[in-house]
Design goal:
By secondary structure, this protein is an alpha/beta fold. The chain has 3 helices and 28 strands. About 3% of the residues have low confidence.
Amino acid sequence: MPYISIRRGDPSRSRRGSTIVVFALVAGTLLAMVGLVLDGGYAYFERRSAQVAADSAAYAGALEILHANRTWIDQSARDDAALNGYDDQDPAIAVRVENPPTSGVAIGDNNSVEVIVEREIPTSLMRIVGRRSVTVRARAVAGVTADRGELCVLALNPTASGAITVSGAAALNAPNCEVVTNSTANDAIVANGGGCINSSVTTYGTGQGTAGGYTANGQICLNPAPVGGIPRPDPHAHLAAIEPKPGDYPARNAGKGKNGLKITGKEQQPVLLQPGYYAGGIHMTGGEVRLAPGMYVVDGFTANGNVTIKGDGVTVFNTGAQKGAISIAGGAQLALTAPNDTANPYNNILFWNSSTISCANPNQCDARINGTSDSVVDGVLYFPTVQLTYAGVQTTNNFTQIVADTLKFTGTSYTGTDWVSSGRTPTNRRVSFVE
């Protein structure tokens, strides 16, 4: 019988081969996991950067809406994204700007801006599983909305000393709202000679230095003391794009020449005026004047002496032609309220100086509103390029917001902007994130 020999394989060699296969599989899996962690972490970091860029770009685009520069929405958003590292000139980056948004809760809202940024980033270790790049994407929506913030007084000038000045025995009482100046001067707010400001918040500029001259009789007379803050944007900047044009309104002063309409008190009383364009302005020295509801476009609006001016739902817009100013002085008794109609583009605006008014002699341009102690001035007083002197209006139940280049208070005055209890929809607008 032949001899048959059966030879077994080397068991140690078999085990070594199996170990190599298992190691290769485990090593590949580990490398993939490490790649996922490293590349995923980098992608997460980039995702945060992308969100910052999208947020900032959407906000920049919405600011153009706030400032009535809609033609700049797209460019401003893209420029801002580029400043944050997302320049769409790079082929790996895409920036999409939509006004109105094409998706989300703000879809179709013409006062909102949607920005989507994308960047394709290369991977490193994830290449072993065939993933050579990943796309990072972020989206943001910012829009212009009504601002119910309690801003009562704002001086826009960024550098003026005494941008808000309260002098003599004057007092500015704004107990439920803010008094703000954008000036960074060390004496941005001045209360001297016994003048006081009583406000829920008194802030100024960027907090450079300290406000000067705010003690009287040894006592702090700015309550609370001023604190630094960021500059406030002009809440009515959008009005510059829709300023009334004289030619769009009925001419009421035909034949009056540059001297305008003069009311002395000798006319049959009261004098009833209708909305329209008053070339040369309206100038009152006596009697009673009643303004019918509507827009009064004037080349100056002055009152001197004992005159009563009444009007409900009126806006007085001063063109500044012939260096005319809005100037109400002396013993004028005022009973004036702004429109309260959301369909009116000039809703809440009572006195308004054109943003184009500028002259070498401030005495010919600066505004003054000085009413008797029982006067009512209900609405927004907007003088963006000139100084407003405000005095004597003491009514405590009115709605008054004051925005001017600089402000002086020379009599005891009250102001407040409680939109809710006044039954008004805010004219103030602000930019906020919608999504």
